[in-house]
Input
Amino acid sequence: MSADSPPSGRVLKAPESFLSRDGIRSVFAEGKKGRRDFIRSAFAAAVAGAAAPAALAQSNPVPAEGGDPHILELPAHSTGLGQGVATDGYGKPSKYEANVQRRQSPGLTQTTQSSVSFAPLQSLFGIITPSGLHFERHHQGWWDIDPSKHRLMVNGSDPSLLKTPMVFTMDELMRLPMVSRFHFIECGANTGMEWGNVAVPTVQYSHGMISCSEFTGVPLKVVLDLCGVDYKKARYVLGEGADGSSMTRTLPMEMVESGEVLLAYGQNGEMLRPENGYPLRLVVPGVQGVSWVKYLRRIEVGDKPWATKDEAVHYIDLMPDGLHRQYSSIQECKSVVTTPSGGQVLLDKGFYNISGLAWSGRGKVKKVDVSVDGGRHWRPARLENPVLSKCLTRFNLDWVWDGRPALVQSRATDETGYVQPTFRQLRAVRGSRSIYHNNAIQTWLVQDSGEVKNVQLS
Amino acid sequence: MSSSPKPLWLALAGLLIATAAGAQSVPISGVGRPATPKEIAAWDIDVRPDFKGLPKGSGSVAQGMDLWESKCASCHGVFGEANEVFSPLVGGTTKEDVKTGRVARLTDASFPGRTTLMKVATVSTLWDYIYRAMPWNAPKSLKPDEVYALTAYLLNLGHVLPDDYVLSDANIGQVQQRMPNRLGMTTNHGLWPGKSMGNGGKPDVKAVACMSNCATEPTVASYLPDHARNAHGNLAEQNRMVGAQHGADTTRPPGAAPVVAVAPAAPAAGGAASTQALARKLNCLTCHGIDNKVVGPGLREIGSKYAGRSDAADYLAKKIISGGSGVWGSIPMPPQDIPAADAKALAQWIAAGAKP
Output
């Protein structure tokens, strides 16, 4: 194969040979003399001097002479001594991963303490969110609380609802029967900015208020049993945080009785991160994040719901008739393609792996279909194991991009048979002002330039 | 070998059955202790819609106004109308709404925004939240009588209560009957994960999973305009440097070839950065942008205003500690309870231009 015909599947739009052949010859000649620095400066000069758009950094061209300098010139890590163990007692990601960050959406909030940061879904693999990239939602700032001073109290709205109101230390809670479970947590307002129209460019901002972890803790039922709760009368549970906002939310006792609501202290093999409620938070599988009260200090059992601020002013869904849906909690079945996705550029025509996430607050994901023509035709995607209840499920699908515009979508169906709706179907019932619980099918437009755009269809 | 009539295998089988019967086969004891009445009183502060949990007390609209101006106006505006830090509390309700119990403007899709008083159905919610979480930078510092006064003033701003009203635990039930959106909530939906409310979990939207020749309208109806291309920052810096897709360089027009493998800008280092971190830690930046006005003026604007004064740093340090209003507008800056050394460091940094 000659240097004039690119390798298969790698037709690059940008001028690949930004070094002239003469330049490459001289680079190699200099390189062979051991002047490696010359290569670096030659590349830098070529970039700085280029009037044409800068070249793609990682190409794999047929070398003009001899071979790829990254192969021929052995790098320092192949020819030197590396670093020792425990250089960093708590290891960090590669410095080349510094772009993978949780981020705020500019202009969404005026303060950082009552705000949100979005997880970089476009850069994540599998189903587990690294704890440091877990999305954040704080209502009055986050704290790093001394676990030896943290207490959990359980009491009743009325003394008759339980035998003994009790107090537990963290040491005591961590002695109780322990379970570990994988669950997603999604903010009720995830994708909320997109109800009316496209508002944000990337999947980080459109869907990044979701994360998934392995949580470890004790079922709340175990603790309520110790207090002698009267389950006949106490049909509601209030969780309350210890932070400034002392967040409160009402839960149904049915979920506690099923054993799935956890008093969690563990997350992905270590303790919860402070931003995620260290040392204790509620895990309420399938239910929106606001109910997973962080810095949990108190559980109250009651016979009526509480209509707290976050279930009477916020986290209520406005319907077209002017009524607000109150106590809306379940996160319905939803999915999104994370690569390729908005703000990314396909480097070339040819083979790609479409990858994404699907989930349901009502159970397991049963199937995910993917369309590349805006929903006219669909193909079933491969679901990666494990497929767990109320947990993220990773899906993948082979795709050959022919270089023409494509409308990429995913559509999830859960084990109850519920099918993720289109925007049109969702808006027909709920209008476009409800802010919360937007689980519509997401569309990404792959333009002929390879750049991917967030779009909505009608 | 045992001479017992019960064979060993039977005893083992019995053990297995006992273990399988419940994961938790041993009773739990010695974990936790009874809460004392004093402890419960300290933490059990929630107030329900039926006013269970509401402490006795009272407060007037007039008392509420004084408290409001010193503790609330800096974030919520003098009339609860401000949109600069949080969504507005007051506005959008009418006297007719107080009669009907439904806020009419909630059916008007063209009405911009929704205030707290347009949404909230239960007066207990306001009382509970002010008591547990306000003021924002000093939560749980208000006494019950102050919360009654502030709730009364807030409702007075919304024309729900008259100027001379004194709100108390005795009359709050009557006030509930004047809440403008008291009939504006519904639980008739499928998103409550229990049996005690809602429609039993029945979804409101029914889609079918058509696989081929499906009826669609693949017309692109909404997308970000090109001028907003870089509004969320350079997307090339928000994607991994390697992979099947790289981030688009949104500093360039669409279609231009992307610069890939863009590393993020290194954070500024040095003393100024640590003062800026201090300003963030002490919540200064909640109300003051570096370059822009938020509630109060931008910090660089302050620096340039006093650039000619040799005592600028001392003056600003005093203003930080004592608070004030009138220099930059009517919204007061509350006094800041911070160490004098921190105030001095901040003042010097601001006077020097709040440089990064």
Observations:
- Chain B has 14 helices and six strands.
- Strands of chain B lie at 33-34, 58-60, 166-168, 185-186, 220-223, 245-247.
- Chain B touches chain A through 116 residues (CB under 8 Å).
- Confidence is low (pLDDT under 50) at residues 10-22, 266-271 of chain B.
